[in-house]
Amino acid sequence: MNANAGNAVRIAPLSPPHADRIDAIARSLPAWFGIEEGLQDLRRCAETQPGFVALHGNHLTGFVTLAQPFPETWEITWMAVAPDRRRQGIGHALIDTAASKARNAGAQLLHAKTLADSHPSPEYAQTRTFYRAVGFERLIVLPDLWGPENPCLLMVRPL
């Protein structure tokens, strides 16, 4: 994968040693990852779930963690790209790699949860725009999953 000329990025399988850098990226994005309980869950997922990392040389610049709740569906549990590397195609490459892995394993849908459109966060408006750009569609709002102050939007991408 080449995200912008001269910025070769390699997508590699996630492994537990990546967890420290994943934690650092998440903590550098407090508008998205500002809840300590969530950061702890992200750390656990980075150490135990499958996924992928984006590497520029040996520098980790992005990640996606995955869960497989059913054989036909895979879930993006966590995803981020380092602030200085956003808008360079890294997120697209991570999603495309995750979708390919899920499809090759027989899955029919890839899904992700994010804050619903009714939430005023401009950062999560960017997240929804990103997911739409990589082929996800809005499926349903789950207003009570994370509590009424954080309405959950379930988005899906057919594989």
Concise structural overview:
The chain has 159 residues and is α+β, with helices and mostly antiparallel strands. Helices cover 31% and strands 32% of the residues.
How many runs of DSSP E, i.e. beta strands? 7
N-to-C order of helices and strands: EHHEEEHEHEE
Strand order of the largest sheet: 1-2-3-4-5-7-6
Task: State the helicity in percent bands.
Answer: 25-40%
Radius of gyration: 15 Å
Instruction: Give the overall silhouette.
Output: globular
CATH superfamily: Gcn5-related N-acetyltransferase (GNAT)
CATH fold label:
Aminopeptidase
Helix segment tally: 4
Indicate the CATH class.
Alpha Beta
What number of structural domains do the residues give? 1
Enumerate the spans where pLDDT stays under 50 for 5 or more consecutive residues: 1-6
Overall pLDDT confidence: 90
Largest sheet: 7 strands, mixed
Portion in beta strands: 25-35%
Structural class: alpha+beta
Distance between the termini: 20 Å
Instruction: Provide the CATH architecture.
Output: 3-Layer(aba) Sandwich
